[in-house]
Amino acid sequence: xxxxxxxxxxxxxxxxxxAAISVxxxxxxxxxxxxxxxxxxxxxxxxxxxxxxxxxxxxxFDKAVWISSKLGSFSLANAWDQIRLRSSALNWWRxxxxxxxxxxxAFITWLAMRERLSTKERLxxxxxxxxxxCVLCRASIQYRDHLFFKCSFSQRFWRKIKSLCCQEDLxxxxxxLISLGEKHWKGKNLxxxxxxxxxxxxxxxxxxxxxxILQQGTARTEEQIVGIIK
Length: 230
Fold this sequence. Notes:
Blueprint: H1 13-18, E1 31-32, E2 35-36, H2 44-51, H3 76-83, H4 93-96, H5 103-113, H6 120-125, H7 144-150, H8 152-164, H9 174-184, H10 190-216, H11 222-229
Antiparallel strand pairs: 1-2
């Protein structure tokens, strides 16, 4: 190790200057007869620093230390924690991920929450030319909040699922519904599970219906989809 380089987090340029050593000095040049050999300190900071240096144990083999870990050992979890991008916590995660969640439903719901579904509005924003109208109702531009649940087809389907879940009072507006879910769809109680499952089921099947119309030219009625769910 070279003393005074930027890679060394504990030894800086000021210490190198105060110790009157070369910036290219190696650690081995600071050891003499198995002890530190720093010479005379020229500042109080250097005296303090040198007083904190541990004794050298030459009977112990060198070993690699992962400095980001308190124990000095490497782990994938710790490495990921160091490189990952951090953002504020999302309050809606319990709506999507819970013990009784069905993976394929939860995944599509997660994409909807993140506004990552390839709606026609998003396709157009990528420069892809397409008919912007919603394929389910042909009454509005297709975007996330229209599909869930301003679209007339989606509203009818959502109302049927709300009735099955005994939750007829749930909102049809996306933002209001998510806000309600963040506050009340928690824990392992039956009501919360029914709301979360019903919500994810509707998201999944509306998106599947949209894809079936676009890709295969086929469509099911709300009653047929409810029959599949039952």
